Every structure is written in C-alpha cells, then in structure tokens.
Amino acid sequence: MIIVNGETMETKSQTVAELLDELGYEDMPVATARNMTVVRKRERAETKLNYGDRIEILVPMQGG
Amino acid sequence: MKDGVTFYGETVSSRLLLGTAQYPSPAILSDAIKASGSEIVTVSLRRESTGAKGGRAFWDLIKALNVRVLPNTAGCHSAKEAITTAEMARDVFDTDWIKLEVIGHADTLQPDVFGLVEAARELVAQGFKVFPYTTDDLVVGEKLLAVGCEVLMPWGAPIGSGKGLNNVFALKTMRAHFPNVPLVVDAGIGLPSHASAALELGYDAVLLNTAVAKAGDPVAMAKAFALAVEAGRLSYHAGAMEARDMAVPSTPVLGLAFSES
User: Fold this and answer.
1) Which residue of B has its CA nearest to A22?
2) Prediction ipTM score
3) CA–CA min distance B240, chain A (Å)
4) Is B53 labeled as catalytic in the residue annotation?
C-alpha cells in the first residue's frame, strides 16, 4: 500500500518509474516526490517504493 | 523608448509579468499573453486526477508562446513545502527561476515572511534564482537580499483583491532604499492605472493575473496593461512635475484682454 496524491492504492510497482508507467504517465511532463523529498527524473528508476510511502505526482498547471 | 529590465542577468523588454490562471479558455489565455507582450509568465504544479493530459496540453500551449516561465510555489504554507515544490518545479520546467510564495494567512494570503526568508536561504544555496513574493516591509526586504535574492516582489494589495497599491509610502521607501534591486509589485493590481502608478514610483515591473484573466475581455485588458506599463515607465523617466496646493494658470496672463494694465 502506498499513498499517491493523498489517495491510498495498492501497487505492484517497485520503483517510482514503474508507478508512473502503471498510472499511465509514461513520458508525460510530471514532477515527483516521495515522502516530501523530490525524486528527479533521473532518480525515478532507482527510487524504490516502500509500504506506506507518500508519493506526489504533479503536472504543469496554470498559476499566478 | 522601451528600456529593458534585467532579472538575474536575463533582460526582457516587457515590464509586465503575467499569470496564466483563471482565463475563460486556453485560447483566450494564449491570445491574452500575446496581447500583453509579456515575456515572463507564471505557472504552477498541481495534482491532476485525470492523468497528465491536461498538464501536457497546458505545458505545450505555454511552450508554443516562446516565453520564459516563472514557476510558483503558490499555496505552500511552510518553508518545507515551498522548498520541495520549488525542487519539483525545477525538475519539470527546467529552470532555476522560482516565484517563492510561503503563505502565512488563509484569509489575506499574505506572506509568512519568516518562512519566506528561511526558504529563500535554502533555495539560493541550491542554486535557485528566487523571486520572493513578500510584503512591503523594508527589513524583510533586507533579509531577503542578505540571503541572496536579487529581486524583490512586494505586494500592492492582497492576492486577487484588485485594490491596487495599498501602501504607497512603504513601496516608495523600498524603492528609495534599494535603488539597484529590481522591484516588482506582485499581487493586488486591479487596473491598468494601478500598474502605471507602480511604474511611476520607479518600480521595475508588475506581476498580475486576475486583473486580466477576470476582465470582461481579457485580451483587450492585457493590451491595456501593456500600454499602462509602458506609459508608467515613460512617465518615471520623464520626471513628473511637483504637485502644488494652489492653482497656477497654465495660459500666460501677460496680454490678457480687458485687463487694466
């Protein structure tokens, strides 16, 4: 079990990169964080997911 | 004359920085940015429940405009949140520029200036070029400069209020004390005349969003702001007359008909 953008989910993904693929983000422009620490693009394949991790997946959005 | 303004070594000719939120449609957003002549637009990062398609469409639209993006940390209520958001923004937008917001009060959306200075210190250490959204407090401005900010963005009035320049005295004080620091009035501007007033005080630029996005005709209002900013800057350079308490006739009195002498 992990928490993605505030919602609990079950996943078989082992890494942040796999999770993005599983959720359909693939090579979309997204920013990721694990437990309030940024996970940069180049770090996603090596960043392992652990039970209870809080993952944020953010996308470019309008802003003021 | 249209002189440029330089932020962190990068010079732009437009003194209008524009937000990208709250427009009626993506097409109007795009047209408004073009009409404004703005070369720097603010963007954000948010969760999206429907996958990243909306995010990609928005990002493609902005990239097509060939403008610089200034990602923000809007909505962050702690230095830690703002720092992490800035790091995420750098990763996705590929820029060291960050409009740093650390919100201190839910009603007024005024900056938590203590968290702001703390976050600015950390982000500068990480190589960010920080554009801090701050109050018009002179001492906070000094602290932000001391930790490495090279731009200050004091508010005119609360975000989205459209009230203009609430404290002209404080804004003038900042201008006088920081003659060589780029100063941007960020937030609270509701009318082109407010933007003109900021430029007439010697401010280098203005950053606004709602005043354009929520106008009846955002594209026309974007153009109005472009003209207002240019007029304000010209006025600042031209040197305004001194205000006087008494009337002084502008038409020559000498040779006036029907006079006795």
Assistant:
1) B51
2) 0.92
3) 32
4) no
